[in-house]
Structure prediction request, 537 residues.
Amino acid sequence: MTTFGIDLGTTYSCIAHVDGRRGPVISKNADGDDSTPSVVFFESATNVIVGKQAKNVAKISPELVVSLIKRSIGQPGVELRFHDVAHTPESISALILKELVRAAEESTGETVTDVVITVPAYFGVREREATRNAGQIAGLNVLNLVPEPVAAALHYEALTFEGDRTILVYDLGGGTFDTTVIQMRGHDISVVCTAGDHELGGADWDAQLANWLLERFMAEHPGSEAETSEQFLQLLATEAEDLKRALSRSESKKHSMSFDRAALRVELTRDDFERMTADLLERTFAMTQRTIEVAAGKGVTSFDEVLLVGGSSRMPAVAAGLRQRFGFEPRLHEPESAVAKGAAQFALIESVKIALPAEEDGGATQLSTVADQLGISTEQVATLAAKRVTSVVPRAFGVEVQSPGHAEADADGIVVDHILKANDPLPATPPVRQYYTAQPNQTRIELSVCEQAGEVESARPDANRTIGSGLISGLPPLPKGSPIDVLFEMGETGALRVRAVELTTGKDVVVELQVDGLSEAEVAQARISVAQYQVGN
Prediction:
């Protein structure tokens, strides 16, 4: 059975599979396009439209349209209601996935069940698990999640066959930004370090350009109600994206706007656009600089290739800025499709490893059987079975502890002690950390597991967010200073497991901390709800 790779993007999404003869192939949508806008229009209580038509409807009925939902995935308490039905970011993402699957099944004649879904390299545990849940809600078997720059590197490797390489991937998508250093050595692809911001992307360039257009319109027509018209603002947002793309091809562009008999024609140059968005570009370069410095600390001081991935990396200012700031000669690497194609290759690797268990000796009979199942050669099976793809801890993770004298402690004397550090290689099992009860006669111990929230690690509680909690209760009154061992483990896929053991009593008390998010029951219920929708393009 064919496995599929899905690039579930903030602004655009696409799906691909590996064809034995042609290699990775993008499944076109109903409009004949490689990518589908990640926009959902709730037309009725039983029908939703995903893609270009939904994006166009946003100009008319913005209250029934959702876009940029990926920026909210994994965030607690986010709920949207349409036609008196509640939706989460996971269930809305599932509707996007269902449309991608529908189009892929229509174009390939295959049933889409087993998939790999991409995530930004900087996604934390909560966002990753929420993405996995979205796939399950869509009725898919999510074999794995793969970081977007790793997928891009996989596709690059398959195209070049250039042997050992060290690559810097600059991935500027519609809604997220990652910069990642990757090493390719023989059969191994490993992430050295990564950094990113899942609230920075091409949509922010669009927003600043739309604001500029609105300011120009209002300056010409003071008192106009245009600035309070949702339809006009939605139209500006769409036109800003088109204008941004045009300025990547041309030095200047004229644009006309009208509202309630008032009209304005403006001309915008590429230089003007680059000046008004220079702060956004600088944020990506600052993050790139930090990534380079972290890589240097790990012994990586040069790069064989700098790859530009993500549709927004087409903006000329990106390559020019990287050249001027860092002396790089970056190259565009199929920016809109590399991630999906790489995900398809990763999906094939996963399917081979499932079909060819590790205990098998890889004999000719077994290789031939798997090759027949997957429609590839025995040589390809052997190569894929040997390939290892490893990543790093995306952010720092730790627990809240009392440390009143700490410089970053809050008013209650609480700090976050990070046990897992960002960019530690995965799988990661740091040494057991020992803590002590802070009060006499404690009969319960509460644990709060936290994840770094900002771009830079900080012990301040407000610079972290709680992703899980646990309770050891029913203990006899413990003296102050009783020891508790805490062990963090993160697997190759980024799944986090935390154990806490109270030692003084001699009892083996273990708490398994589960990441907050949708429960199994909530995922099952969302799957039933989403299945009731007719999804179209």
Observations:
- The first strand starts at residue 4 and ends at 7.
